[in-house]
């Protein structure tokens, strides 16, 4: 075992960790399909998407570590931030840590996430932080493809057989209560908007709504009812699934501290 | 759209994939894959065959649309050309600047 680290609580650092952790944890969940995807071609597609998200996360965690050091904290690199935090210091929205579920759930979550990340990265291209703007310029192209790919599946399975339609509608129903958190406002969010580091998440909602509604209409799926609860993964309050995910994700670095290829 | 019933059983149709690796060059056959329809075939071709920056353009063609010569007629189709060496431009000296002959 190696000691855990505590990241900086500076608003800019927390803002980048929220997004970086969202990409990291979603990447991990998608990677769980490797060896289990329904067809070889889709296995490669999911692997590519997971790797794109991991790359985005690496860049964001690196930048968050640099900003944390600049704010008077310790300098942490991407690996330390990815592997040596305790559960309460991961700031991804809870949706990203939910188990991979069936293929329907995976594609619905990928669509929901891509429709959220696309306006996010688009706006981050104008970040006042030049590093973040550069990361966004690369990521926006990747996420545009992720959205297309997930949308193709959602349309085909939503407007497919009786069973595929049922599974897609079930997946939507399961994921919908976790959507609120993607657009919730708080002080960290407001500070990022004010400093020009990045957009307030709530401002992404109209773009997300438009993109999701277009795909659901084509897929002949029904948008689930809005639910009131707002999860708080972005403040470190996670579901029961997060601990299990971290034990898998961190096992190597925890067992062999500093281990490299 | 019915994914499971496109070709009976649970088999998706087969597609041939052609990749152009540089602007100006030809699309080259690089393999095949299974996909439910043309749009997905194109996406999957991107993921399977261009993930290491191999291409700038992709074609996918239903394998069923390809008319192939019969291997059994190989001798009739191709052997007569064996002794027609005069059809090769081997009796000319090519300028060194000609790359793609």
Q: Give the full name of the CATH homologous superfamily of one domain in chain B.
A: Phenylacetic acid degradation B
Indicate the structural class of chain A: mainly alpha
Can you tell me the CATH class of one domain in chain B?
A: Alpha Beta
Distance between the termini of chain B: 46 Å
Q: Helix coverage percent of residues of chain B?
A: 10-25%
- Biggest sheet of chain B, in brief? 3 strands, antiparallel
- Beta strand % of chain A: under 5%
The succession of helices and strands of chain A, N to C, reads HHHHHHHHH
Distance from first to last alpha carbon of chain A = 19 Å
CATH class of chain A: Mainly Alpha
Helicity of chain A, as a percent range = 55-70%
Quaternary organisation: heterodimer
Number of helices of chain A: 9
Shape of chain A: globular
Side-by-side strand order of the widest sheet of chain B? 2-1-3
Instruction: Output the radius of gyration of chain B.
Output: 19 Å
- Identify the biggest protein-protein contact and residues per side: A-B, 17 and 18 residues
**Order of SSEs of chain B:** EEHEH
Structure summary, number of beta strands of chain B: 3
């Amino acid at each position: 075992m190696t000691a855990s680290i505590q990241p900086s609580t500076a608003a800019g650092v927390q803002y980048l960790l929220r997004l970086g952790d969202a990409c990291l944890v979603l990447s991990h969940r998608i990677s769980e399909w490797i060896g289990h995807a329904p067809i070889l071609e889709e296995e490669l597609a999911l692997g590519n998407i997971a790797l794109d998200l991991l790359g985005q996360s690496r860049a964001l965690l690196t930048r968050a570590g640099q900003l944390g050091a600049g704010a008077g904290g310790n300098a942490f690199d991407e690996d330390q931030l990815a592997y040596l935090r305790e559960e309460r210091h991961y700031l991804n929205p809870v949706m990203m840590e939910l188990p991979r579920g069936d293929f329907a759930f995976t594609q619905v979550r990928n669509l929901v996430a891509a429709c959220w990340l696309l306006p996010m990265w688009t706006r981050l291209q104008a970040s006042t932080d030049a590093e973040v703007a550069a990361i966004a310029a690369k990521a926006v192209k990747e996420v545009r493809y992720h959205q297309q790919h997930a949308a193709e599946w959602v349309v085909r399975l939503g407007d497919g057989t009786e069973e595929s339609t049922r599974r897609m509608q079930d997946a939507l129903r399961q994921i919908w209560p976790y959507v609120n958190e993607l657009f919730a406002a708080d002080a960290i969010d407001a500070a990022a908007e004010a400093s020009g580091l990045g957009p307030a998440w709530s401002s992404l909602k109209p773009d997300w709504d438009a993109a999701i509604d277009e795909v659901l209409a084509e897929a002949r799926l029904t948008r689930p009812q809005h639910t009131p609860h707002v999860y708080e993964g972005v403040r470190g309050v996670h579901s029961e699934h997060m601990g299990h995910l971290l034990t898998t994700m961190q096992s190597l670095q925890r067992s062999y501290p500093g281990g490299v290829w | 759209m019915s994914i499971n019933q496109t070709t009976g059983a649970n088999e998706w149709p087969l597609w041939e994939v052609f990749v152009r690796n540089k602007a100006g060059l030809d699309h080259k056959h690089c393999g095949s894959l299974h996909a439910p329809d043309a749009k997905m075939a194109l996406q999957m071709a991107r993921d399977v065959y261009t993930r290491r920056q191999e291409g700038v353009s992709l074609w996918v063609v239903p394998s069923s649309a390809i008319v192939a010569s019969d291997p059994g007629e190989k001798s009739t189709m191709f052997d007569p050309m064996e002794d027609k060496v005069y059809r090769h431009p081997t009796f000319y000296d090519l300028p060194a600047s000609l790359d793609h002959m």
